[in-house]
Write a structure and sequence with these properties.
The complex is a heterodimer.
Chain A: E1 3-14, E2 17-28, E3 32-37, H1 43-50, E4 58-63, H2 77-87, E5 89-93, H3 99-111, E6 114-115, H4 118-125, E7 128-132, H5 142-153, H6 159-167, H7 182-193, E8 200-204, H8 212-229, E9 232-237, H9 240-244, E10 249-254, E11 257-263, H10 264-270, E12 273-279, H11 282-292, E13 298-303, E14 306-311, H12 318-327, E15 332-339, H13 342-350
Parallel strand pairs in A: 3-9, 3-10, 5-6, 7-8, 8-9
Antiparallel strand pairs in A: 1-2, 1-4, 4-5, 10-11, 12-14, 12-15, 13-14
Helix pairs in contact in A: 2-4, 5-6
Chain B: H1 2-13, H2 16-36, H3 42-75, H4 78-84, H5 89-123, H6 130-159, H7 162-173, H8 176-185, H9 188-193, H10 202-215, H11 220-243
Helix pairs in contact in B: 1-5, 2-5, 3-5, 3-6, 3-7, 5-6, 5-11, 6-7, 6-10, 6-11, 10-11
The chains are: A alpha/beta, B mainly alpha.
Chain lengths: 356, 248
Amino acid sequence: MTILLQTQELTKKYGDFTALNAVSLTLNQGDIYGLVGRNGAGKTTFFKCVMGLAKPTGGKIKISASRKVTDVAMRGKNAEATLNAAGAEATLNAAGATSHAKREQAATSRAKGEQTSPHALSVARRQIGFMISPAFFSYLNPKQNLEYLRTIKGIHDKGEVKRLLKLVGLEDVKKPFKAFSLGMKQRLGIAAAMLGNPPIVVLDEPINGLDPQGIADIRAVIQRENAERGTTFIISSHILSELDLVATRFGFIEQGNLVQEITHTKLHEHTKKSLIVDVNDGQKALVALKSRFAEMLVATEAVAAGSRLIIESHLDQPEVIAKTLIDDGVELYRLSPQETTLEEYFMRLIGGKQDV
Amino acid sequence: MFNYLLGEAYRVLRKKSMYIYFGSFALLYLLLVFIRSGMGNEATQIKQDAETLAAFFPAVVGGYLFAAFYTDDLNAKNLTTLIGFGLGKTKIIIAKLIMVIIFGVLIFALIPVFMWAAFSVFNGAVPLEAFSTLYAWALKALLEAIAFSAVSAIIVYGLQRATFGMVTYLLLSLGVIGQLLAALFSWDLINSIAPNLSEHLMSGITIRIILGMLVGEPLILPIVEYLIYVAIAVALSVLAFKKKELEF
């Protein structure tokens, strides 16, 4: 699996306050990575450090993205970045090492084919499109704002702006940015982040302020770009249920610490719905249920007062299940639904604090 | 950086308020010339106009350019986009100054032509020699606009507050800070240690450049002073920007 972006022990302090504490995060090619955390958990600070908008106090950032889709002609430094990124990685050591240590590290990195200068990292950053609080020139309309960015980024393909405006549903909007609703601003921000088809797109709270239709539209855009163009996304949100619909991997961040990285599948293994059935005889109950529901997903485990059955199918038929067991002479002590929501899982992970 | 310059030109040329702003001033001036038409002594009048207006041009023309190129970036949080894209802070600062110079040269080159044409339309032909005076004053205003932009950029990048940057520019271009410094330099104590310091303020430097061009006084020294002035301002801007994290 190709790693496009990696941070190692990334730390950011503002005076005595630690905004990021040794965050080691890995973004693989093709991921839609959901960075989940409460307000003020460190999500935006993480992005700021990755994008060079804030100087890390310690740690490493490694960007090794290479352009897969080349339908957008690039020139000048952009082309250089593409070539660099294809054959080498750009690494910034911000650990505050001594000059000697820095030189040694640089030599080691060179031996590995990495480029260690901040300039190399700046060039590599051109492989990343990002949206951190969408802000544009208030007097320009969406097309003009994107044309401005297209010119700066040296993207030759003039159709790119039209494509992206259509993608986010702003192709017919002529009014200036200052007259935009919050949702329209978010859409334009997302279009700007995807301008030039960068291999990595960073979106900080992209669904903030969007109505349900807008959220669904943005979700569809992300999934389409990921599937059709192979774009890798890292998206932050404090709305876990929304990220759950789009992300393939998650990172949970709390008070500057990356508490856990987990795949979508693994996460859902922790958050399945089930029916908990406590009985006197687990084996007898299992036979009774299987004879009634051949395809039932059920597991048994021993508990103090007999056995526990964990049923993961037929969740809408608890009364039928109860009747089956009683009719077959099984003593039923408890039958109750159990569900750990994503929010509950996250709460448990961060120690039960609210606000996600 | 070339792409960035192109992008900035694209953006500012689509700023409708620029055309309204300069168009309004042009109309006002036409009206003024029309009202005074037929009063005679056009050659002297146009020179006086140039002198009077030149005192305000760094603020009126340069102020707009400063806002368009520097403070618009802060209001639109565009610096995060530029830095995030990998554009160096030094490049951004130099590119901004280049844009002020390019647009300043274009506008200040047109102003004398416009003034001369306006006078000619309402008063008949005005002697071509008036041009040299007009261009001398326009050049003075241009040089001041560039220098004050460079100095105010220190505030823009150091504090990243559009209002502070604009106020600094206006205080400089309207001569408020210059007059305060001139008053300070006239104190006996300072004057005895470093006499004639006022001549080395921006207004003094540009006057010496103009006199050098018009009456052949030494030009090299004021030009070198001017360039040092701008270079130090750019260096301080770079330092201030590199020390300051982007706020958004």
